[in-house]
Amino acid sequence: MPQPLDATAVRRWCQTALDLLGRAREDIDASNVYPVADADTGTNLYLTMESAAQAVTAAAAGCPTLAEAARAMAHGALIGARGNSGTILAQLLRGLAAELARHPEPAPAGALAAALGAAARAAYEGVAHPVEGTMLTVARAAAGAARTVPAAAGAARAVSAAAAAAREALARTPAQLSVLAEAGVVDAGGAGLVAVLDALDAALSGRRPDPAAHRGLARPASLTAAAASPSAAGHGHARDGDPPGQHPPCDGHGHPYEVIYLLDAPDEAIPALRTRLDALGDSLVVAGGDGLWHVHLHTAEAGPAVEAALDAGRPHRIRIVSLAGAAGASPAAAPRAGRAVVAVLPGDGLAALCREAGATTLTARPGEPPGSGELAAALSHTGAGEVILLPNDDGLWHAASAAAEQARAQGIRVSVIPTRSPVQGIAALAVHAPERRFDEDVVAMTSAAGATRFGEVTTAEGEAWTSAGICQAGDVLGLIDGDVAVIGQEPGDVAADVLGRMLSAGGELVTLVLGERASGQLADRLREQVRRRHLGVETVVCEGRQSSHLLIGVE
């Protein structure tokens, strides 16, 4: 069912885009050959979108308007943009947000089409030398398709047309950029943009996105019929008012550094800065406006690139990365030794329990899960050469994977064990043995986590469809292995039902983790249930102090 384009849709869009980019990240990284084959485009787009999503989540606490939510998304992307592709995505979102702010809420189809057009124009303007066959081309094709949809058809129809056109344009990128055709891939940045537009389509259409459609999205161009079509060559898709691509591609040869920084500077200082930076290298993208800019450049002269920023305003968050190191050289790193386990937990009681077992812990605040940057910092701060990460939440899997990639770039050996609940993390920690070889320890911990079924008793935040029927706000939900199995009114009754169902398949050990609102009477009732009905099953109770009523583990 079509949904309105409002602030809620923007938040839904960000979360869905983050999920799709997380699933496609490794495939996009593997197809990254332009402008530098540093295999990080998917990761950079994911990290940029993660920053945008976090900004929108923070803004949601104040009940924002569509314009405010869109501006928060664009600002978050701008300050968190990573790499060439992430900076272009930030500029796209900025152009889109500026146009949406001019329209009422919910935005009509015409407003969305205009916003996509503004996004494409902003992106072309931000890139010093636009090249066709890149995510710029994909953005322009999407905007053009949206303009063909009658305003009466609605915003959902417009974005569906845009997403379909973007996918078609992506398939044509190898015919427009020879380096892609030679490598047998489509443009990596364009593949990421298709995922972002598919997420917007899902947010407005009400349809569930197909994650499988994004695995292999950047598949070899030889398997993409549209890419091989002679008619796809050239730049014949421009429309009135669209900026044409005009410069040949550059591959970054002779420019060993990637320089990135945020810059506080008046808008009138930017033209001179662009000219000065353009003479220092290539892949120049300057995104932003209204006094805050994000600058990206590949150069052999990192010092002068920063000096130019000092003359224009106040640079901060300066990052200088060796492109040779990104392409596979081994950068120097501080010596590391030993093995550590990092566990993400939803309550301070659980965190204390895992610290006693030897883990470094990170507490996840309700509604504010840690991002990949926070996770990567936790991995790095252990000082260990080998780190095992226990995310303990399905929703943290993509962030954990991205964090692991960042840590590996620092020379840390990282393994992420796919724990979906804290009780699985507890089971994994119980068999952790640092004296074993790293791979053996990871296998043992993964096996222990996989052998633990997990349940949860929590309260519904609103009306929703579930696998057990429709729930209302305030209903007590009983989940088994992540799916709602019971809907009730009293936590004790729901917990007893869930525990009975979980033990019907057998078990030797039950772990009950009490939430901050749970009483000791609940634990006594469940322990007595196990004693009477399941002889030989041991029960362990601990104070987790998480927001949900109860976590249950059955090993």
What is the overall pLDDT average? 87
Spatially, the strands of the biggest sheet line up as: 13-12-9-16-14-15
Largest sheet entry: 6 strands, mixed
Q: Estimate what percentage of residues fall within beta strands.
A: 15-25%
In helices, the fraction of residues equals: 40-55%
Alpha carbon gap, first and last residue: 41 Å
Rg, Å, rounded: 25 Å
The helix-and-strand class reads alpha/beta
Poorly predicted tracts of residues: 220-253, 326-332
Discrete helix count:
20
Counting DSSP E segments of at least 2 residues, the number of strands comes to 16
Envelope shape? globular
Model description:
- The chain is α/β, with parallel strands linked by helices.
- The strands form four sheets. The protein has a six-stranded mixed sheet, with helices on both faces.
- Strand 5, helix 14 and strand 6 form a beta-alpha-beta unit.
- Helix 1 runs antiparallel to helix 2, helix 1 runs parallel beside helix 3 and helix 2 packs parallel to helix 4.
- The longest helix has 24 residues.
- It is globular and about 75 Å long.
- About 7% of the residues have low confidence.
Task: Supply the key terms.
555 residues; alpha/beta; six-stranded mixed β-sheet; four-stranded antiparallel β-sheet; 20 helices; 47% helix; 17% strand; globular
Can you lay out the helices and strands and say which pair or pack?
Elements: H1 7-30, H2 41-60, H3 66-80, H4 83-100, H5 109-126, H6 135-147, H7 155-176, H8 178-183, H9 188-205, H10 225-228, E1 257-264, H11 270-278, E2 281-289, E3 292-299, H12 302-312, E4 314-322, H13 323-326, E5 339-345, H14 348-356, E6 360-363, H15 372-381, E7 386-390, H16 397-408, E8 413-416, H17 422-430, H18 438-450, E9 453-459, E10 464-466, E11 469-471, E12 476-480, E13 483-488, H19 491-503, E14 509-514, H20 520-533, E15 538-543, E16 550-554
Parallel strand pairs: 5-6, 5-7, 7-8, 14-15
Antiparallel strand pairs: 1-3, 1-4, 2-3, 9-12, 9-16, 10-11, 12-13, 14-16
